[in-house]
Amino acid sequence: MSLFCHRIGVKIVQIAGIITEYNPLHAGHLYQIARTRQLLGEDAAVICVMSGSFVQRGDFALVRKHARAEAAVRSGADLVLELPLPWAVSSAEGFAHGGVRTLLATGLVTHLSFGSECGDASVLRETAAALLSPEYQAGLQRLLGEGKSYAACRQAVTEALIGPEKAACLARPNDNLGVEYCKALLRCDSPVQPIAVRREGAGHDSQDLTGTTASAGAIRRLLREGRREEALACMAPAMRQAYWTEEAAGRAPVRSEACERAILARLRSMTRAEFQALDTGKEGLGNRLFDAARQAASLEDLLAAAKTKRYAHARLRRMVLWAFLGLTPADVPDTPPYVRVLAANDTGRELLARMRRCAAVPVLTRPADARTLSPEARRLFDLEVRATDLYTLAYPDLSAALPGAEWREGPVIL
Question: What Å distances lie between residue 320 and 180, 309, 329, CA to CA?
Answer without folding.
Answer: 24, 18, 14
